[in-house]
Amino acid sequence: MNVFSPKKLIALIVISYVGYYVVSESITKIKRIEFSGVVDGANFPAKQIAVYDFAAKFNQNDGKIDCSHIDSNRAVKTVSIVNNVVVCCDTDEWLVPYRDVNGRREYLCGKWPNLEVVSKSLEEENLGKR
After folding, report:
1. Cβ(116)–Cβ(89) below 8 Å
2. Is the alpha carbon torsion for 40, 46, 127, 108 positive or negative?
3. Which of 7, 29, 101, 121 sits in a 20 to 30 Å window from 69, CA-based?
4. Could you read off the pLDDT of 93-130 as tens digits, one per residue?
5. Rounded to an integer, what distance in angstroms lies between the CA atom of residue 14 and that of residue 33?
6. With a threshold of 0.85, does the pTM exceed it?
7. Terminal-to-terminal C-alpha distance of the chain
8. CA 51 to each of CA 3, 17, 70, 99: distance values in angstroms, whole numbers, following the listed order
């Protein structure tokens, strides 16, 4: 006797997917708030910044994307496109949480379980605002 009929199997797959999505969104929200702090009484990260802050640079000589100014906690750097901006991080969101630690600005990108922290020197951050 077959324990899993096709209908039960499909229902199990749908329930598993929805469960994974809910858990992923919840843990991502918690991690974002832990990363940058929280505004009193709010339910979102205190410090958020536009992805322009860690946008990729383009090499004028060969047209290649350059993310050498950004460090990542992953072995391989990730590149994404958000609102037609190429960024050096795994994200699909325009605003990401950030924090300043030991002379570096860190950004939290992605969704659980694929969270990524990228960073750059605060000196470079300050130079970019002149």
Report:
1. yes
2. positive
3. 29
4. 999 999 999 999 999 999 988 899 999 998 876 555 43
5. 29
6. no
7. 73
8. 49, 29, 13, 14
